[in-house]
Task: inverse folding
C-alpha cells in the first residue's frame, strides 16, 4: 500500500487527500493517519523543490577527508546548499553542493570545515546542475541556513557589507 501511495504522490504531490483516498479505496481518516505516521517515522517528507536557476546552478562534488566526518555530515545535511551527503570509508564525506559560483561553493566548504580540530583534506570537482532538475530545500529561509548557525551561509557572506544579518 505504501508503494502505491508514494507512487501517486510522486505523480501529483498536490493531490487532495479525498481524491487520493478514493483512488486507493481507503477511508479518508485512515489515509490521513497513515500519511502522518509515515511523516512521524521519517519515511516521507514534503518539501519545496526549486529550479537551480533560482538559487544557483553551479555544482560541486566535494570529497572531504577527516576523522570528524560526522560533524561535517551533521552540519551539511541542515544546509540548503547541500543536495546530498554520504559517508565513505568511515573517514570521508562526499557532498553534492550548489551555488551561484565556484567561489560560493569553496566558501561553503570552508564554513563546513572551519570548526574541525582535525587535519582536513578537500577535493572539489565542479559542474552544472541541469535546468530541469529541482533542488529540495530543507530550511524555511531559501537563502539563509539558520539551522546550521554557522554565521557564514553563502548569502550572508555575499551581503555582509550591506546588511549585518546574523543567524
Result:
Amino acid at each position: 500500500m505504501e508503494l502505491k501511495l508514494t507512487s501517486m504522490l510522486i505523480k501529483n504531490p498536490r493531490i487532495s487527500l479525498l481524491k487520493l483516498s478514493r483512488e486507493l479505496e481507503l477511508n479518508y481518516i485512515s489515509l490521513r493517519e497513515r500519511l502522518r505516521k509515515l511523516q512521524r517515522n521519517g519515511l516521507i517528507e514534503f518539501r519545496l523543490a526549486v529550479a537551480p536557476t533560482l538559487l544557483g546552478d553551479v555544482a560541486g562534488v566535494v570529497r572531504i577527508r577527516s576523522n570528524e566526518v560526522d560533524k561535517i555530515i551533521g552540519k551539511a545535511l541542515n544546509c540548503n546548499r547541500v543536495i546530498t551527503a554520504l559517508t565513505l570509508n568511515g573517514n570521508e564525506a562526499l557532498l553534492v553542493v550548489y551555488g551561484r559560483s565556484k567561489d560560493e561553493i569553496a566558501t561553503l566548504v570552508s564554513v563546513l570545515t572551519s570548526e574541525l580540530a582535525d587535519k582536513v583534506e578537500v577535493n572539489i570537482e565542479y559542474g552544472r546542475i541541469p535546468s530541469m532538475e529541482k533542488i529540495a530545500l530543507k530550511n524555511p529561509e531559501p537563502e539563509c541556513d539558520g539551522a546550521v548557525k554557522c554565521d557564514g551561509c553563502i548569502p550572508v557572506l555575499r551581503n555582509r557589507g550591506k546588511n549585518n544579518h546574523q543567524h
Remarks:
- The chain has a mean pLDDT of 81.
- The chain is about 35% helix and 20% strand.
- Helices lie at 2-11, 17-24, 28-40, 52-55, 69-76, 102-113, 154-159.
- The radius of gyration is 19 Å.
